[in-house]
Specification:
The chain is of the alpha/beta class. It has helices spanning about 5-10, 35-55, 65-75, 80-95, 120-130, 150-160, 165-170, 200-210, 250-260, 270-275, 280-285, 290-295, 310-315, 320-330, 340-355, 360-380, 390-395, and strands spanning about 25, 30-35, 110, 135-140, 175-180, 215, 230-235, 240-245, 300, 335-340, 385-390. It binds adenosine-5'-triphosphate and magnesium ion (MG).
Length: about 400
């Protein structure tokens, strides 16, 4: 670059601006570039290098390690933990697949099980472990396009937000569709009226589960690119995990087995857990899921109602256990909280009677501990430094007399 050359070049070769309109025109052998274009190119290079980082490989997931992680948070549900760990590990293998000739099929997972047995907890715990964007969406909040409520694009938008607006990352994420049983087609008698919340929603979800290019508003999702109004997100690599209680599915399974003409030969187990193992895709269709939707979830796994022993574990053993939480609340007022073994059994027993799984444990504890929590300051004044919950105090919660 020298003054002779500088005089020779009047305009930027990239944007054609005159050298009088820019701060500096940098001149090379046969080309000139202005300071503005240099800055633009710099930004572009940063964007490219970010994109390369993001589309890079994910670290491989060892299903055994993921399962061990899940064990810390979720009691029981061995099958579900193993199935989910494998599904997630395979999802990562698909993303990292470099063999262009071999396309690995997506294996979306469906979790079935009674209320309060840990479906949502499992999904949340998986999310905690992963470094791909993850979002949980309630199927009941989704409506067909055109109706009031969220449409399926909102799901993708949530995932995009979870990926900090990075489309590449979002396209490799995981969406947990909770409460899918609630979008089952209603009974045949009501199918004449337009089914706003059920079949239409399944149809709409089908598109994104199958893989489609969604156009979602960029607003808020991508701060780096405020001008862009709509962003295209390809959903074909997004893994879907669906969960639902499917209340009554056991009856569908039993009816099918009994009605199959085999009659006496079929060994129908009475226990619900066993019958979930006999689940066939057809049963889900009878339940009200559309066949195409069922077909998109090749892996399903049943979760079981928690036993009383497992409920005791939920109370005491897992991370953030309820007992640990309440012990802390008591501790802040200088009172040690303990439970007798009988008391724990009693709590698990009355929680299991409510048929809402582990969900009722917290309500039980609140009921039992309320008189004490109300009196904690009073305990301190009367030098009561320990509350031991016995089975009597479980049956008839009352404060300790000073
Ligand atoms: N297997 C489990 N291990 C530990 N805690 C559990 C387990 N199952 C349930 N819980 C506790 O019960 C609460 C409710 O569980 P969760 O939300 O996972 O139920 P769900 O199976 O999704 O039920 P629903 O069908 O009603 O949505 C959780 O917050 C958790 O504290
Ligand atoms: Mg749930």
């Amino acid at each position: 670059m020298n003054d002779d050359l500088n005089n020779q070049y009047e305009n930027c070769d990239f944007c054609n601006k005159s050298k009088n309109d820019v701060k500096k025109l940098i001149v090379g052998d046969k080309v000139a570039i202005c300071d503005e274009c240099v800055n633009l190119c710099g930004d572009l290079l940063i964007q490219i290098s970010n994109a390369t980082i993001n589309s890079g490989k994910f670290k491989d997931i060892d299903p055994v390690e993921l399962k061990e992680f899940l064990d810390e948070y979720v009691i029981g549900q061995e099958n579900a933990k193993i199935t989910l760990s494998v599904a997630v590990a395979n999802h990562y293998k698909r993303l990292n697949n470099t063999n262009a000739d071999l396309e690995l099929a997506k294996a979306n997972v469906l979790l079935l099980g009674p209320t309060g047995c840990g479906k949502t907890l499992l999904a949340r715990s998986v999310a905690r472990y992963l470094d791909v964007p993850f979002t949980i969406a309630d199927a009941t909040s989704i409506t067909e396009a055109g109706y009031v409520g969220d449409d399926v694009e909102t799901l993708i938008n949530k995932l995009l937000s979870a990926a900090d607006g990075d489309v590449e990352k979002a396209q490799r994420g995981i969406i947990f569709l909770d409460e899918v049983d609630k979008i089952a087609r209603k009974g045949e008698s009501t199918s004449i009226t337009r089914d706003v919340s059920g079949e239409g929603v399944q149809q709409a979800l089908l598109k994104i589960v199958e893989g489609t290019v969604c156009r979602v508003p960029a607003a808020g999702a991508n701060r780096k690119n405020p001008q862009a109004e709509m962003i295209e997100v390809d959903t074909s690599n997004i893994l879907f995990i669906a969960g639902g209680a499917f209340v009554g599915i056991n009856d569908v399974i039993k009816r099918r087995a009994q009605g199959s003409g085999l009659g006496f030969g079929v060994d129908i187990k009475n226990n619900d857990e066993a019958s979930l193992q006999d689940l066939e895709p057809d049963d889900l269709v009878k339940y009200g899921m559309i066949p195409e939707f069922v077909g998109r979830f090749p892996t399903w796994v049943g979760l079981t109602e928690l036993t009383e022993d497992q409920l005791i574990y939920v109370l005491t053993e897992i991370r953030n256990s309820l007992v640990a939480q309440y012990t802390y609340l008591f501790e802040t007022d200088g009172v040690a909280l303990t439970f007798s073994d009988d008391a724990l059994k009693e709590i698990a027993y009355s929680a299991s009677k409510r048929k809402t799984g582990a969900r009722s444990l917290q309500a039980e504890l609140e009921r039992i501990l309320m008189p004490h929590m109300f009196s904690l300051r009073e305990y301190a004044k009367s030098q009561i430094t320990e509350v031991k919950i016995t089975s009597e105090l479980v049956k008839t919660p009352q404060k300790i007399a000073a």
